[in-house]
Each structure stands twice: as structure tokens, then as C-alpha cells.
Amino acid sequence: MPPDAADAGAIEGEQAHFRALESLYAAAPINRLFDSTLEIAERGLARIRFQIDDRYFHAAGAAHGTSYFKMLDDAAFYAANSLVTDRFLLTTSFNLFLTKPLKAGPVIAEGRWISGQRRVFVGEARLIDSDGEEAARGTGTFMKSRIPLAGLPGYRALP
């Protein structure tokens, strides 16, 4: 196969993996609780667009920390798992830095892979509020599990 055709096949396979990860995210039962969408545009980069409303507020009228953690963890996780085509990664640790209260409105979680290519991966993510300001940042480590991606019901290429 000529080099160009081989490269095209690898790109098509990579894109299929990204779409399958997006499908896996959408199929996770936890995501029925959040109005959110995952986008993986390239290796090592994931974005989750989501909406904060008063269902996620603590008693003082801003988003509870569980919303921050969930979206930061997911964005960093999927950025890292975009590099792994055979196994599901597991979060082994995650550090949060909350810098601004999130009020109602659209938020973007931007995740990116930092390092690691075999068994342990490091990713980071940040939350950007509707004013374009960073509201939080997080760094996590993710380890390859024994769980094959292909065996997970949600992991499939979309038609």
C-alpha cells in the first residue's frame, strides 16, 4: 500500500476510535444526569460542552464541586483514552483547583493529554465559563485497565 493510502487508513481508524469514544461517553448512565456532549477532534484533545443550571447548585446558588470534578475528570480522561485503542483507562488520582464559582449557563471542559504512552497517562483539563474565563483546573493520572474497549456496549462507531 502506498504511504498516502496507509496514512489515510490510519486517520480513518483514528477517527473511528474518536467517534466510538464519543458514543461510549453518551452511553454512560451517569451522563443521563448531565446535559453534555463530548467532542474529540484530535489525539490527546477532548472537549465537553455542558450546561449548568440550578439542579447542580449547592445551597449558596453556584455549581457544586461534583460538577467540576466530573467534567474535569471526563475531559482529561477522554483526552488520554484517545491515545489508547484497546483498553479502557481508569482514573487513579485527580487534583482539583477551583478558582471561580460556576453560575447557570454553558461551560466547556477542555482536556488534553500531557504524558505517558504505555500503562499510566497524565492528563489535564480546565473549565471555561460562559464569559470565557477559567473557573477550574485539574490534573489526573489514568491507568490502563484489563477492560477491552471493544467489549463495552457503548463503544461503537456511529453510523
Protein model, in words:
The protein is α+β, with helices and mostly antiparallel strands. The chain has a single domain, classed as Hotdog Thioesterase (Thiol Ester Dehydrase, Chain A). Helix content is 26%, strand content 39%. The chain has two helices and six strands. A hairpin with a 4-residue loop joins strand 4 and strand 5. The longest helix has 25 residues, at 3-27. The radius of gyration is 16 Å and the shape is globular.
Structural class: alpha+beta
CA distance, first residue to last residue: 27 Å
What is the mean pLDDT? 92
Number of helices: 2
> Helix and strand string, N-terminal first?
HEEHEEEE
Largest sheet: 6 strands, antiparallel
- Seen as an oligomer or otherwise, the chain set is single chain
Weakly predicted, low-confidence segments: 1-8
Number of strands: 6
Q: Spatial order of the strands in the main sheet?
A: 1-2-4-5-6-3
Reported by name, the CATH topology is Thiol Ester Dehydrase, Chain A
Basic shape: globular
Query: How many structurally independent domains?
Result: 1
- What level of helicity do the residues show? 25-40%
Gross CATH architecture:
Roll
Report Rg.
Answer: 16 Å
Domain Thioesterase: 61-135
InterPro entries: HotDog_dom_sf, Thioestr_dom
Protein name: PaaI family thioesterase
GO molecular function: thiolester hydrolase activity
